Amino acid sequence: MFDRGWTIFRIRGIPVKLHITLVLFLPYVAFVTSTQFRVIAEAVGLPRSEVHLPPLVWGTILAVGLFVSILLHELAHSFVALSNGVRVRSITLMMLGGVSRMERDVKPEREAWMAFAGPLSSFGIALGCWLFSLLPLPAEVRVAFLALALANAVLGAFNLLPAFPMDGGRVLRGLLSSRLGIRRATRVAATIGKGMAVLFGLLGLLSFNILLVLIAVFVYMGAAGEQGRSQFRQVLEGLPVAEVMTSRLGEAHADERAGEVARRLFRQNLAGALVVDGDGEHDGHDPDHVLGVVTAWDLARPELHRAPDATVGKAMRTDVPRVHTRDDAAATLDALVGGDAEAVLVLDEGEHVVGLVTPADLQRAITLLGAAGGRAR
Ligand SMILES: [Zn+2]
User: Fold this and answer.
1) Which residues are responsible for catalysis (predicted)?
2) 12 vs 87, 118, 148, CA distance in Å?
3) Residue predicted with more confidence, 354 or 39
4) Burial of 185 (0-12, 13-18, 19+ CB in 10 A)
């Protein structure tokens, strides 16, 4: 739910997505700032008559400035991750920062450093904007820089709160996990996150501050999600991918109609299909001929409904993560939650495609192992 967003551009191959919360939040920022800009100006001793541009223009400029600030904050996370050899699958820009989806779990100390890079960059931008506000520029431009400096300082400080899902929660987990182990450290950071969310919620309700209530909901869901993932990981850890994957895999050609393939998946009770190139002269699920993968969810996308002649080539996913049968099943959880993939392709020792792991497969494994009272080994 928090993973969805519209891809607006790519940087070093990483899709940068815009989350619905930010789409709604930016016009709100523009509006509020436009009503407050003259007040802010007066507060720093600038008479109203000195503000020449219409307030709405300043509001829009500052909203765009905030957007760029959040983007730079996320890019700082991603670049530190990349320099640590961690693949970043996507960046989602949200209301109060963003989420950089990493391919796999990293050592907690490294994760702490990656998490710290974001707030650090926000403080850096705040410092830069404050220095600009001291330059002999037109008075209202200086006020705008001052406002941006303040916004970035708040962004940095908020994200540094030592609670999941904020960056500070990751820093805290990194620092705690050498003593408590990663699971207990995750639980502590998530519990603090939930506690803080309840506090924000109460404060928001008592002060009739809708924004604070929204932030509370956001933080609570993020903390709960992080805790849930940690528990799932625990269940799956040490289990080979072969035990959770499905081999009910069909084949489809890129130029086939999506509706036909959907019917075939249903009739033959298949979890998904490999999309292969047109000649059909190969077998053994050689990954070189696999163009992509479609699952039921890919075929059910609304844009395909509107175009009944759409081909499977339009529906398939091409950047599907790959794992091997003997890999740890917890790694597929990271790949599925970390990216926006609906499935992970499973290869055997001979690099042939032998199956798929979809979120439904993981859910089934986690539920059954839970019902069985843990893993019997
Ligand atoms: Zn951050």
Assistant:
1) 74
2) 11, 18, 27
3) 354
4) buried
| Residue in the structure block whose two tokens are 């528990």 | 231
CATH number for the domain running over 241-371: 3.10.580.10
> Which pLDDT tens digit goes with each residue over 245-263?
888 888 888 888 888 888 8
Per residue in 209-244, pLDDT (tens digit) is 888 888 888 888 888 887 887 778 778 878 888 888
Find, among 237, 250, 198, 187, the residue nearest to 220 by Cα: 198
Q: Could you tell me the distance, in angstroms and rounded to a whole number, from the CA of residue 281 to the centre of ligand 1?
A: 48
Query: Among 321, 319, 326, 183, which Cα is nearest to 244's?
Result: 326
Residue 368: CB partners within 8 Å, gap ≥ 6?
A: none
Classified as helix, coil or strand, 1 is coil
- Any known ligand binding at 167? yes
| Two structure tokens written together for 66 | 């905030």
What letter does residue 287 receive in the DSSP assignment?
G
Q: 109-113, 136-140, 141-145, 371-375: which range is least confident on average?
A: 371-375
User: Residue 123 — pLDDT band, cuts 50, 70, 90?
Assistant: very high
Q: Is 243 a catalytic residue?
A: no
Distance in angstroms between the alpha carbons of the first and the last residue of the chain: 34
Which residue among the candidates 42, 74, 103, 303 is catalytic per the annotation?
74
231 bridge partner residues:
none
Was 73 annotated as part of a binding site?
A: yes
Q: Locate tokens 């100006």: which residue?
A: 41
Report whether 118 contacts 124 (CB < 8 A): no
Q: How far is the CA of 20 from the centre of ligand 1 (A)?
A: 18
Largest CA distance in the chain: 77
User: What is the rounded distance in angstroms from the CA atom of residue 42 to the CA atom of residue 96?
Assistant: 27
340 is in an annotated binding site: no
**Who surrounds ion ligand 1 at CB < 5 A?**
97, 118, 159, 167
Distance 263 CA to ligand 1 centre (A): 43
Q: Residue 86 gets which letter from DSSP?
A: P
C-alpha 221 – ligand 1 centre gap (Å)? 16
The structural domains of the chain, with segments of one domain joined by +, span 6-236, 241-371
Sorted by sequence, the CB contacts under 8 Å of residue 340 that are 6+ apart come out as 3, 4, 89, 90, 101
